[in-house]
Design a protein that fits this description.
By secondary structure, the protein is an alpha/beta fold. It has nine helices and seven strands; from the N terminus they run βαβαβαβαβααβαααβ. The chain has a seven-stranded parallel sheet, sandwiched between helices. Helix 4 packs parallel to helix 6. It binds NADPH dihydro-nicotinamide-adenine-dinucleotide phosphate.
Amino acid sequence: MSEIVRTAIVTGGSRGIGRAVCVALAGLGMNVVVNYAGSANAAQETVELCKEKGACAIAVQADVSTDEGTTALFDAAIKEFGRVDVLVNNAGITRDNLMMRISEEDFDAVINTNLKGAFLCAKKASRLMMKQRYGRIISISSVVGVRGNAGQANYAASKAGLIGMTKSLAKELGSRGVTANAVAPGFIDTDMTRALTDTVKESILSQIPMGSFGKPEDIGAAVAFLASEQAGYITGQVLCVDGGMAM
Ligand code: NDP
């Protein structure tokens, strides 16, 4: 019997952490569906990087915060590769402000992309994965979801929500061979963190025992492990990849 080639959907795979996750999964020989919201060229670059690893990959534009978007994403994955074995809920945004200044619109935007998007994808993935009796659902949370952060109540709520959802999914799906885990990055050098001021960056750096910021590849490696066949007995966990920041 020929070995099954696993297929992974990575939301927000065009840039930063999502791109590193796509490349790491391609390195494991998986087919990769690179989702993006608006950066078509960047998503295509990720596809090329996956192909350089010898994997098959496609880019799919879809807004994960909508049911239509996530339906189109899963339809495209099934049409191209016939199955979905790994889902990485990575797409995320920030709209930082102090609690008393967060508008309802900015609260909703962050929750809808970061948490509802993961819900819509995990719901579709779990149906397919339960039937297959195999699956890996990995959600990118944050150190901020574990510890909270002044100025990020909306973002922290979305990231803490992902942890609660992950543990619930782990309990629902464990008996069907489907694992659900979260990865909680600390400060990783991407477009999202490049927007922060030097003063904020210095203050964060002083809280990191390892004394340096992380790279997207650090998260890619952790996700690839949790997505692998070998991680089949790990579920409901939050793996902090943060240089010791959340301790
Ligand atoms: P970036 O801002 O660099 O990239 C965000 C990605 O999400 C892009 O690919 C973007 O697509 C995609 N995206 C945004 N909104 C949507 C949407 N509605 N539908 C589909 N895709 C969308 O972020 P990072 O790489 O830094 O972060 C990735 C994840 O890691 C996020 O969930 C973030 O919260 C989390 N994280 C990051 C940390 C860090 O230090 N960087 C720390 C902790 C967690 P497009 O390019 O098309 O806009």
